[in-house]
Each structure stands twice: as C-alpha cells, then as structure tokens.
Amino acid sequence: MMKKRFIGLVMVISWVLVVACSTDDSSNPNSASADQIAETAMSGSWEITYFYDSDKVETGDFSGFSFTFHDDGSLVAVNGNTTVTGTWSVSNSSSSSSDDDGSSNSSSADFNIFFPVPESNKFEDLNDDWDIISVSQNEIKLIDVSGGNGGTDYLTFTKI
C-alpha cells in the first residue's frame, strides 16, 4: 500500500516538473513570421522611444521624427521640414548560430534598416540588421551586438 502511494507521488511530481519546465513557443518573439512583423511595422507611424548606441543613450538624436515603413521597402523619417529616406525589410535569418539576444533560434527574423547617409550623420547609427527582442501592435524592440567593438545597441520604436 505504501509502495503504491510512493509510486503515485513520484509520478505526480514528475508530471508537474515536465509540465512546468516545458518551453512555450508562443512566448518567443522570434516565432512571428517575417511577414507578420512587416505588417506590424507598416501599420502606422512610429517614433524612437529608446536608442542605446554601444555606450550611451542617444534617443534624443531622433526626437520629433516620425518613421513610416512602406510596403515598397522605403523607410521615411520626417521631422518638420526635414525628411530622411532609407530602406527597410524583415528577413528570415537562416543562421544556426546564436542570435544577438542570446537565443539559438535558427528561424529568427532580422529587421534590416539602411539610410544612405555619411558616417557622420546620426541616421547612420540605425543602419544594421537588427535582431528582434519583441514585437507587439504598439512597440518593436530591437537589439544588435557589434562584432567589432562588442558593444550592444538597443532600438525601440513605439507607435504614434
């Protein structure tokens, strides 16, 4: 009788541990397809609410700019009479190495931004193939770990 209770208790504990320790793919921000992420980006105008470039916060460099991601791949940033035009895309990364966020998801998506500006222009800092931390209807959080200096950049777009 005692042995049956012990075995039953071990089975219940084992089941609880298996269920509690299993991964939930729906919580993975990289589980969204490139098309879904692109649709979200094209769903309105965005502003940069956080930009950390390797060693300091540079959010203020983009204060007042409204960013619009168009379906033709163009990216337009407007602040009053100032307009900066670039390109953007979301692509599936087929790399099996670890992403910048530390995950090893082989089907993650890259959020690519390119502004054809001189290196001295603040928009050049946005040029990268960003890894996606999270995407919601109102916020896109990106990360990039630089290969050269090893610094980590963070970029957050919030819907206006």
Structural account:
Mean pLDDT is 82; it is low at 22-30 and 96-107. The protein is an alpha+beta fold and 160 residues long. It has helices at 2-21, 34-41, and strands spanning 45-53, 56-57, 66-69, 74-79, 82-92, 109-114, 128-135, 139-145, 152-159. It has one domain (28-159): Lipocalin, CATH 2.40.128. It comes from Constantimarinum furrinae. Residues 1-20 form the signal peptide. This is Lipocalin-like domain-containing protein.
Task: Specify the biggest β-sheet.
Answer: 8 strands, antiparallel, barrel
Number of domains: 1
Low-confidence stretches: 22-30, 96-107
CATH class assignment: Mainly Beta
The helix content, as a percent range, equals: 10-25%
The CATH architecture can be named as Beta Barrel
List the secondary-structure elements in sequence, H or E.
Answer: HHEEEEEEEEE
Q: Indicate the CATH topology.
A: Lipocalin
Q: Give a count of the beta strands, DSSP E runs of length 2 or more.
A: 9
* Mean pLDDT across every amino acid position: 82
